[in-house]
Automatic annotation (TrEMBL):
Keyword Cytoplasm recorded: no
The EC number(s) this enzyme carries: 5.1.3.20
InterPro entries: Epimerase_deHydtase, Heptose_epim, NAD(P)-bd_dom_sf
SUPFAM superfamilies: NAD(P)-binding Rossmann-fold domains (SSF51735)
UniProt organism field: Arcticibacter pallidicorallinus
Keywords: Carbohydrate metabolism, Isomerase, NADP
High-level lineage: Bacteria, Pseudomonadati, Bacteroidota, Sphingobacteriia, Sphingobacteriales
Primary enzyme class: isomerase
Protein's recorded name: ADP-L-glycero-D-manno-heptose-6-epimerase
Length: 321
């Protein structure tokens, strides 16, 4: 059995499709399944069991002999969440328990970290494990992810194979439920449908013009390819960046969405909401050398390729991956 936590979510549900396409069907999906709007993400996919998040750790004890691999991708991912108790419970303490179960029962583990750990990028975007304690995340979500990365590296006992993946700005099908946290491609598509235009955030940083804030946007299909690679690779444990390796502007993202729809861009700028203005990353770019050094050689989608595929094959038709 292959276990996937956060299975009703964005990246996890796309991973289910990737595993199905590779002939893996004995999948155990773990999540809080009380949200029917998200459960659409795994409908039509092949799996063997659904396990509720709150009984998953007990389930591992009873079923560990049958588990081949655990992808722990479930988390509270809202960067505007400031309830530290909730983030500690779901992102830190729960992950520690999953880690310890993997140690106890000899199970390989891949878990989701985040580029939010890098903060403003004062120390760059290198996945250097020795520098984790120097990172300055901008919000409690990023702090919870960095706290777990640091904790994992401090453990005397580790799963025989483990990897923590720092996801950068992932976009693609199955993210419709993320609302405010969904990608700019998703929001651009919907605003174009409703108004014919798109509103991007103004820059409140004199180093960047409006719309020229830059992020490392990575297509979810590339993310699932890397996750699948680690499931087969099972060596070189550690923490890795998972981005495209190339920063692009939000204008690039929006313009490519208009282009995929065959429309002329109509873009206006609005103030960045005050609750996130002082915690806003103006530039991110993953150093992908470490992942490449262990043998991952597949090319990543360019922004143009990824946006075109997402818009024309999923958003226009309302399809799921």
């Amino acid at each position: 059995m292959i276990v996937i936590t956060g299975a009703a979510g964005f990246i996890s549900s796309c991973l289910i499709q990737k595993l199905n396409s590779e002939g893996f069907y004995d999948l155990v999906l773990v999540d809080d399944f009380s949200r029917p709007e998200q459960n659409k993400n795994f409908q039509g996919k092949r799996y063997s069991q659904l396990v509720e998040r709150d009984v998953f750790l007990e389930w591992i004890v009873q079923n560990h002999l049958h588990i081949q691999f655990i992808f722990h991708l479930g988390a509270r991912t809202d960067t505007t969440e400031f309830n530290r108790t909730l983030l500690d419970e779901l992102n830190l303490d729960y992950s520690k328990k999953v880690w310890n179960a993997c140690v106890e029962f000899g199970l390989p583990l891949v878990y989701a970290s985040s580029a939010a750990t890098y903060g403003l990028g004062e120390n760059g975007y290198d996945d250097d494990e020795s520098a984790l304690s120097h990172l300055k995340p901008l919000n409690p979500y990023g702090e919870s992810k960095n706290d777990f990365d640091i904790w994992a590296l401090q453990q005397e006992r580790s799963p025989y194979f483990w990897a923590g993946l720092k996801f950068f700005n992932v976009y693609g099908p199955n993210e419709y439920h993320k609302k405010r946290m969904a990608s700019v491609v998703f929001h651009t598509f919907n605003q174009i449908k409703e108004t014919g235009g798109m509103k991007l955030f103004q820059s409140h940083n004199p180093k960047f013009k409006d719309g020229e804030q830059m992020r490392d946007f990575v297509y979810v299909k590339d993310v699932t390819e890397v996750l699948f690679f680690f499931m087969l690779h099972r060596k070189n444990s550690g923490i890795y960046n998972l981005g495209s390796g190339e920063a692009r502007t939000f204008l690039d993202l929006a313009n490519n969405t208009f282009r995929a729809l065959g429309k002329e861009p109509q873009i206006a700028f609005i103030p960045t909401p005050e609750d996130i203005r002082d915690k806003y990353q103006y530039f991110t770019e993953a150093n992908m050398t470490k992942l490449r050094s262990i043998g991952y050689h597949k090319p990543f989608h360019t922004l143009e390729e990824g946006v075109s595929d997402y818009v024309t094959n999923y958003l226009v038709s309302g399809s799921y991956l």
